[in-house]
């Protein structure tokens, strides 16, 4: 039996490094496109885990998240340059820009793209019901997965609730992409990253995100809530 529970806490949590996660770390070259709250939180976690972070921006001299350059293993580049050097790309821009951003990446052959965006209140890429399908239609890689979109950036900055780490979720047809996302979720401090299914579950992932948004914002529970999958 599976039970999805909601964990809630407003207490200050002390993060403890799980050394077992670092013992099998595969270092990746990661391009981060979108250096706001989500992109910034994951860039910091992954840099501190030892990955090389390539911030891709339109203006390398003035961009949101410039403080991220103080993280280890982190540098800034144009979007195309960051993607060219990377093996994996995280897209964390506003959803309406998904098509334009995807088209700005350059050659994505052989690269994994992780989509962390959501269509919210019908604000998304024109002609698509979710952002991952828009990315697939406007890049030349099929290794696109959806992950890190189902919770708030605060839960990426600190995944721990009273000593219990939250879980992450991933969807997509790409086995390579899901394997990479699962490792990166653990490197960011999530306990597990559960496989939700293939590309046909992209919309479900965005609905799950809106479920969190609904509780946090519209139902007044606040951002300090997160999901944990329990088994018995």
Question: In terms of topology, how is this protein built?
Answer:
Layout: E1 2-8, H1 19-22, E2 29-33, H2 37-48, E3 52-57, E4 74-78, H3 79-85, E5 88-91, H4 98-103, E6 112-115, H5 131-137, E7 144-147, H6 154-157, E8 160-161, E9 164-165, E10 168-171, H7 175-187, E11 193-197, H8 202-218, E12 225-231
Parallel strand pairs: 2-3, 2-5, 3-4, 5-6, 6-7, 10-11
Antiparallel strand pairs: 1-12, 7-10, 8-9
Commentary on this structure:
With 232 residues, the chain is an alpha/beta fold. It is built from eight helices and twelve strands. It has one domain (2-11, 27-231): 3-Layer(aba) Sandwich (Rossmann fold), CATH 3.40.50.720. 30% of the residues lie in helices and 24% in strands. It has an eight-stranded mixed sheet, sandwiched between helices. A two-stranded antiparallel ribbon has the order 1-12.
Q: Strand order, biggest sheet?
A: 4-3-2-5-6-7-10-11
Main beta-sheet strand count, sense and barrel state: 8 strands, mixed
What is the helix/strand order? EHEHEEHEHEHEHEEEHEHE
How many individual domains? Answer: 1
Overall geometry comes to globular
Spans of at least 5 consecutive residues whose pLDDT stays below 50 are: 9-23
User: What is the second-level CATH architecture?
Assistant: 3-Layer(aba) Sandwich
């Amino acid at each position: 039996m599976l039970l999805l529970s909601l964990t809630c806490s407003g207490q200050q949590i002390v993060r403890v490094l799980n050394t077992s996660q670092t013992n099998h770390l595969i270092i990746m070259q990661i391009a981060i496109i979108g250096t706001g709250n989500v992109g910034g939180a994951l860039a910091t976690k992954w840099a501190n885990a030892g990955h090389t972070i390539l911030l891709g921006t339109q203006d390398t001299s003035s961009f949101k998240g410039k403080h991220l350059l103080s993280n280890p293993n982190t540098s800034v580049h144009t979007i195309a340059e960051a993607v060219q050097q990377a093996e994996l790309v995280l897209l964390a821009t506003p959803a309406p820009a998904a098509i334009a951003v995807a088209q700005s990446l350059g050659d994505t052959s052989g690269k994994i793209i992780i989509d962390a965006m959501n269509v919210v209140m019908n604000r998304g890429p024109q002609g698509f019901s979710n952002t991952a399908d828009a990315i697939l239609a406007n890049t030349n890689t099929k290794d696109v997965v959806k992950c890190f979109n189902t919770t708030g950036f605060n839960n990426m900055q600190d995944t721990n609730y009273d000593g219990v780490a939250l879980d992450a979720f991933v969807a997509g047809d790409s086995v390579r992409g899901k394997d990479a996302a699962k490792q990166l979720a653990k490197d960011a401090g999530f306990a597990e990253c559960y496989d939700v299914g293939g590309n046909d579950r992209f919309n479900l992932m965005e609905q799950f995100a809106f479920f969190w948004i609904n509780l946090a914002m519209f139902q007044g529970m606040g951002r300090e809530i997160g999901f944990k999958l329990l088994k018995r």
